[in-house]
Amino acid sequence: MKYTLCITQQCNLRCKYCYIGKREAQMSLPVAKKVVDFIFKNTPPEEKIRAGFFGGEPLLAFDLIEKITDMFESHPSFDRERVELDVVTNGTIFSYKIADFLNEHSIGLGISCDGPPLTQDMFRNFPDGRGSSALVEDTVLRATEILPCVLVNAVYHPRTIRHLPLVVEYFSSLGLRHIYLNPDFSACWSESEADLLPAIYDQIAGRYVNYYLRGKPHFISLIDSKIILILRGGYQPLERCRMGKGEFAFAPSGNIYPCERLIGSDDGNGLCIGNIDEGINIDRMACKMAPGKETNTECLSCSIRDYCMNWCGCSNYFSSGYYNRVGSFLCASERAAMQTAFNVFQTLEKELGPTFIDHVAGMPVINSFGKEVKWNAPLLNESS
User: Fold this and answer.
1) What would the pLDDT profile of 312-351 be if each residue is shown by its tens digit?
2) HSE value, Cβ hemisphere, 13 Å, CA-based, for 229
3) Got the DSSP string for 303-314?
4) I need a surface site. Which of 37, 168, 225, 356 has the fewest CB within 10 A?
């Protein structure tokens, strides 16, 4: 079960493609207490709990993170082996106090960064227009020295897609080994840009293979996530989108959404499915469903249907306006990613022998540690 606590809508950046409305709203302690109770009450005993602190910029409310963490750990149903907490930050706020707290409470850190200044400063700016790259790079360097695992998530856009291989190289040069690459599905992607994907993903694959051959494996989401599927024969039921059933996001107001990307300005719009005081009305999701049982007619005969993220409701919504209608760019990206992953799999299995044992168990990040790490590193949602 995945839960996201949007503890504040305040943010010190004004990223051009951000889907969270910026205002002074911050989650109160009474609302936070109800959210924590909701999480323990509604998670089946056989399932783990993954709860993330989100924003705005959550580290602007670090004191609130401390208090909510205590709510989790002091809850009668808390089990450290079952509950995983993480924070997703824009990387502009960091301190040794924050790092010590994250280490002490085994809270994972994910940094949203689009790469070197060329790409980072194109979209992730301060309100006065200044770029954030220098500050975020400093945070990455300090965090990787102190924390056992730092994840990075880069959003790519039609204006930055050609630089994606450079982005991977940049992260690697900073010591990052867990790299998530996700497109801005709300952008206007053209057919010509979609046609570039096989070649661009192939360039990333070349770097990925080289890292392995040098004995320094990296986790790169668009490759590793698909290698898991190759070994398993496709997405399993609990790996598919469970928005509104196995995934919930809580706005500072206590409003509940089926995914954090749908909070928006938290105006109680048609994407809201309830409130922490009133409960959930799952039927509200129907208004964003296109008619028909299947996502897209062409999906019925597609050879990679079981390996494709056609089930991702929020990605579909930003692409097509419906939770169950796949956009053309997602289709092109998934096809290119599957072919890339298959080529990588064949190359490394031939060169190194069995390479992806941990992927079968759904834990591909283990390869990139190089040693056993007992701390639970959070896996960012593919669409985050």
Assistant:
1) 999 999 999 999 999 999 999 999 999 999 999 999 999 9
2) 25
3) TTGGGS-TT-HH
4) 37
Residue 202 tokens, joined: 């192939």
End-to-end CA distance of the chain: give it in Å, rounded: 16
In the chain, what are the domains?
A: 2-240+332-369 (3.20.20.70)
Question: Which of 377, 379, 376, 357 has the alpha carbon at shortest distance from 367?
Answer: 357
**Nearest alpha-carbon partner for 177 in 384, 373, 346, 4:** 373
Whether the upstream peptide bond of residue 264 has omega within 30° of 0, thus cis, is no
* Pair 110, 153: CB distance under 8 Å: yes
Q: In terms of DSSP H, where are the helices of the chain? A: 29-42, 62-74, 96-104, 117-123, 133-146, 164-173, 191-213, 221-232, 313-320, 328-352, 357-360, 365-369
